[in-house]
Amino acid sequence: MLATLAFASSGAFAADSITVVPTNPTPVDVVRLRYQHTGCINPDSLRVTQDSNRIVVSADRGAFIADECGSIAGFFEDLTIGRFPSGDYDAQLIVNPPPGTLGPSLLVGPIHFTVAGMPPTGSLLPHEDYSDLWWSPSESGWALLVKQSGAKLFAVWATYDAAGRPTWYSLQPGAWRRDSSNTLRYSGTVYRTSGPYWGGTFDPSAVTITAVGTADFVPSFIGRALFTYTIDGVSGSKTVERMRF
Q1: pTM value?
Q2: What is the pLDDT of residues 39-65, one digit of tens each?
Q3: Which residues have a Cβ under 8 Å from the Cβ of 213 and sit 6 or more positions away?
Q4: Which of 214, 211, 194, 212 is nearest to 203 (CA)?
Q5: I need a labelling partner for 132 at 20 to 30 A (CA). Which of 24, 30, 150, 151 fits?
Q6: Which residues make beta-bridge pairs with 160?
Q7: CB under 8 Å to 185, separation ≥6 — which residues?
Q8: Strands of 76-82's sheet, edge to edge?
Q9: What is the H or E stretch that residue 122 is in?
């Protein structure tokens, strides 16, 4: 048993050292606690329990290794706690010392957050989280990686150029909109990025980002979507689905 519980009320472990991401979640969003601190958490120790609207997240502190753990101002770790129905919640973080060591457990929080209701039908906000790896089973070798948080979406298309060389394009930034048929789609600018060889010393001055077209991510049936694009003057579309493991 732990000898002591230390209540965090000031300094590095103040209650405001945890925040909720995204800030205003809906039932679509995966909620995370963003923990700002010095040190690191052992990811294998993370545990989440819920009693009514009270959520307790507990984890063990990892052994401090300067090259691997946070030692600079602003370092944070995101701890996933899940999706929740609409309502009000209070979350508390318990940080235990590494197993086999003596020391206090630190209580961070609680922090209160509200999960809003689902957006109205026909609004400009999605009713699903489309974060996933998307592909076409009949066209193995390329994929569309989508990351969504709240109303924001970022996509990377890993594919091949006209010479058959691997390349990728990013869809960012963008916005949800509805077309003349009331179909919800995410539209934005497509960029091509190039940079230094990954096996050498990274040179930030060698990174270039060039706008090369536009694209739309159009959800259709659950687990299916249409990816349409115009890149370097070439237009096309791909029917994609979530990759199954």
Answers
A1: 0.76
A2: 788 888 999 999 999 999 999 987 655
A3: 169, 189, 190, 229, 230, 231, 232, 233
A4: 194
A5: 24
A6: 166
A7: 176, 177, 178, 179, 216, 217, 218, 219
A8: 18-21, 31-36, 76-82
A9: none
